[in-house]
What we know:
Elements: H1 2-10, E1 15-19, E2 25-29, H2 45-55, H3 72-81, H4 95-108, H5 113-145, H6 155-172, H7 183-204, H8 212-226, H9 232-247, H10 256-280, H11 285-295, H12 318-329, H13 333-346, H14 351-364, H15 367-383, H16 401-411, H17 418-425, H18 432-440, H19 444-461, H20 466-482, H21 486-503, H22 505-508, H23 510-526, H24 531-547, H25 549-553
Antiparallel strand pairs: 1-2
Helix pairs in contact: 2-5, 3-4, 4-5, 5-6, 5-7, 7-8, 8-13, 9-10, 10-11, 11-13, 11-15, 13-14, 14-15, 14-16, 17-23, 18-20, 19-20, 20-21, 21-23, 23-24
Amino acid sequence: MRLTYLFACLWGRWRIRYRSTSCQVLFLVLEDNHNAGAEMSYKNELSVRYMNVARHPIADHSCMGSDIRYSVAFEELERELGGAQSVLEPLTIDWSRIRERSEEILINHSKDLRVASWLAWALYECESFPGLLAGLGLIHHLCEKHWQALFPQKHRTRSAAMGWLVLRLEKLLVEDISITRQLPVFQEMIKYLDSLDALFGQHLADDAPLLLPLRRRLTRMIQRALQVEKASVTIVEQVKQVAAQLFSNSPKIESEKDAQRALSQHEETGKSLCKWWLRLKTTDPRAFRLGRALVWLAVDSVPECNAQKVTQLKGLPADRLKNYQERFEQAQFADLIVDVELSLASSPFWLDGQHLIWNCLNALGAEAAMQEVQAQFALLLKRIPDVIQLRFHDGTPFANAQTLQWISAHVVPPAPSAEQMCDTDLKHDSPEWDSVYHELIPTLQDNGLKAAVQRLTQRMSNAKGDRERFFWKLCLARICHQAKKYDLASIQLEFLDRELQASGLHAWEPQVFLDVLRLLHSCYERMPQNNNLASRKEEVYQRLCHYDLERLIV
């Protein structure tokens, strides 16, 4: 008691340190209390202790210490963590030992954000939510006061360090936990998270870990505990402010450079507006309409790919996809929508994400928002229908089997295609080529295009007369089109088109002539776009307008 009284009397003026014989430093820092108003309002014993850990300089000549990534102490700590590196399959971890070793590193060796994240989680495992609050306070102090000198130096490594902790916080801070009896702890926790989110946004920009869903969830939990509702007038004023920023101070546009600059500014404003709408109401249709318009605005053609439809684009990390799936299975639909929408903004060809968003909205009964997702996605597929066949650099499809089924059922319901138009229009007395075509379609996937071409080439060589040979050539072009070899099909169809015009048969065989033009235009739409191709596509389109205007209008 006397010792406690002595410490209380000395509070604000003295610093007392104690170093044990085992070289582990245990200390108590008692500092001036004049700036207490700048600190978080709620304090407990753990928060004070670990705030002092954050403030304690490693050495007189080096406040932050040195990078310990390859030190024995750091590697031993990593090994002890072991299964804790996996969110899905954690092993038995001695968290008290992790806490002890992390604290020792932060005191004696290095102010390292990776170690601070491990310590924060170890404090939760050992001390529950007050421990987590103390850990977040330590991280906040290091990031706010020592960002430039903090280890590790690379921004992406810092983001990954916080991402490790955020993934665990998302699984921990679910809405069914009771916070009423420890409300001050959670109120201070949301302050730290808000401030950290601002700091990361300022310093890490696009690499910043995503704290928004976590903050939103925690805020809702606190609001329910306090039984306080926000005044609607505040929301209206904030929306008006965002809208005013969107439409005021329009830049003068007199060059392409001005146009690009203005577009970039409005894109950033639009993204902020989408985030705001989602923050107010996760199912606001405007957020899904504007967000997709911004992301897909500049997408006019499919990305470059090889013969196997593999592009150079990278998909989402596997651990993030697993996390999304877990949260969906846990019915965390509202927060998951915010998270997935941000991922879609940076990965516009992750089409499985559109399906995931739609499923979340469906679970929430948000019919209007579901229709927006369907409508905007349908517009993209109308421009570049072949995008659903492409793959990321590792072979993962843009759209998996479930997404393709969803597209067929809800986004682009089956409608007559150019190929189907030909099927209905090619009605001849003895259409042997038509029967062979339908026989070959089911075999394309197993036998490949080469086997089908060989069979058609043989039939072509046995054709009796130029008319039969022409239809076998058309059948060959249709097979290439069905196999999605649009470049090969277009070459065949261009020859057939010239043959019809040169012989004057387009007047005698108008239906066949239209079939050739429709397929040719369909090929041009699906091929990688360039100026030459655009000119040819426009020429074919004008001819179709002249000869088949009614079908085009339909």
